[in-house]
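Hi support team,

I submitted a single chain yesterday and got back a structure, but I'm not sure I'm reading the token output correctly. Could someone confirm the output below corresponds to the sequence I sent? I've pasted both exactly as they appear in my results page.

Thanks,
R.
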Amino acid sequence: MPLPKCPRKLGIVGAGGWGTALAVRAASAGFDVLLWCYEADVANEIAHNRTNSRYLPDVTIPSSVRPITDFKPLEECAYILLVVPSKAVRHVALKLCSDFDTTNVHFISCTKGIDFESGKVMSEVWREILKTPYVSVLSGPNIAPEVARGAPAAAVLGFEDENLLQKIQAELHLPAFRIYTSSDVKGIQLGGALKNIYAIAAGCVDGFKLGDNAKAALITRSLAEMMRLGTALGGRRETFHGLSGIGDLIVTCFSSFSRNRTFGERLGKGETPHQILASMHNIAEGVPTTKAAFQLARKFGIETPVLDGIHSVLYSGKSPKEIMQALLERTPKPENL
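Hi R., thanks for writing in. Yes, this is the structure output for that exact sequence:
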């Protein structure tokens, strides 16, 4: 078990919107935060202006958040939150373990995605490369700007060791940010990853201006797909009824801040996937996750019509309207959840 050196000194790897929001919230609660930034100009802006206009505009970053561009200072931290895009996880993990001893730190994966190369969830990739079992996961319905400004929110922390899980829960407690616990490490991550796919579909409904009835129906059937695929991949059914399942699905499908919902809305209004991706600073994780989840659904023989439709739009050039019509024309059947 890693021995915490300074529980009030927190490391965060990744200065995108979510990483920066977590840094702001933790600093406001009295933590000293080391925020690793991939881009030197982002680190420079945080250090001198106390802002991150590229990834989290209109938010003031407290002075107790110290931006860094190398990993060595993270040796001072008891906990390190890993908040990088899924496509960067392998590269960052290799760099982390080459720069300092990772065996005496507890890592917390906050990345919502599935590794396309292996089909593994992010904690499995981190553990494999960092060569440590001490990687827990944090997920839930957490929109970055709201968390940064201190609005009430909740998340679920997942780890297999109940005693250590409760210790982390207590030490990382933040005001108005409730942390619940679960031992379903895989299910938590599958909920957080898969919901991004369905948020793209929900955004298409917004882009078509089809209304709330259509969107509610789509989200309900999306949850059924999430549970079918998620349980086949090793998650517990009840986890998908919790914060990292239906909770995250709801907020990501409805929030105006949701990158994946916004991506889908732009698809519904006629833009192509390439045009949208080229204009975005932040990653819409639902795009690579769709590719990985589609392959896993085929491997396990799981019926996923909504996922299949989004995959056809993103990777086969089908139009969103064509896919929407095909979904509406499917053979009627009993409601199975």
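A quick pointer for reading it: The longest helix spans residues 185-208. Let us know if anything else looks off.

Best,
Support desk
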